[in-house]
Fold these 2 entries.
Entry 1:
Amino acid sequence: MEVRFYIDPETDEPHIYEHGIMEDEVLQVLRGPGEDLPARQNSRMKVGRTAQGRYLQVVYVMDDDGQGMFVITASELHGNAKKAFRRRQRRKPK
């Protein structure tokens, strides 16, 4: 699946860099286990953990043909949001 990233017009770099996140971390979250939730305006939010142990939320939009996705932004989970996600993951039936 093709994954494209929003490029910030001011820096000509992926917007996720502003949040201290790299492309490979986003791909790990998108491909790994976690929660995939509806977000605003037909977008989705995937919450998961990277191989290095960081908890991220990734906001993306699927392409109309379902063959790719466009990553809008990503940020690290902190505080109560991180605690709630971890709690939900522990409660999931295996």
Entry 2:
Amino acid sequence: MKLVYFNGRGLAETSRLLFAISGQTYEDFRYPLKIIDMKTWNMERKEFDEDKENGRLELSMNKLPALHLDNGDILCQSKTIERYLAKTFGMMGDNDIEYAYIDSICECIRDFKDAYQKVRRLEGEERDNKMVEWFSNTLPHHLQNLEKVLNGSSLFEDGVNSYAVGNKISLADVVIYAFVTQFFDEKEKSFQATENCPHIRSIVEHMQNNENLKEWLEKRPVTPF
């Protein structure tokens, strides 16, 4: 398979983590970017714009990421690609209810990200104050609510578990790990927000010990985002 994105982590990195953890080979195609102003996300992307203009990206709605399959099909939309890869690699549970729980946990994380981006877009003193509030109260509150979801179903064993759903790594584990350790610039503060969430912290620590994941993090290209 061929994963097409820009030379950054962004919307493709969870898919790259899935490839890495599962030990699957693929082509990691990256369009080059020249950053003009990171604050406004003003970037020059000549090769991408040329391919878009020439119709080479029509099957992915002229957007990225895109996943090119071995049979010639092309998938677009980052979350669809993540679910497809996870299902292909045996990381979407063993039955329909496990699939649904994994999917719902990922959607919870998406909501948390959307809420944070609203804070991130603020400016000046309001932004500074909201950032303090986010890491001190808002994020811990969200994670504690997610902890209740993780522990609230008959699918989950009593006590601390190193998996979000079932007894093996799933897309939910990858998404939780990436959210806590990769998504924020304030990584120490985001991990600290899991202090009262032993299940989430166990998931994160278990993922950090995954050898395939560690190898990817050591070798992946250094990018501005």
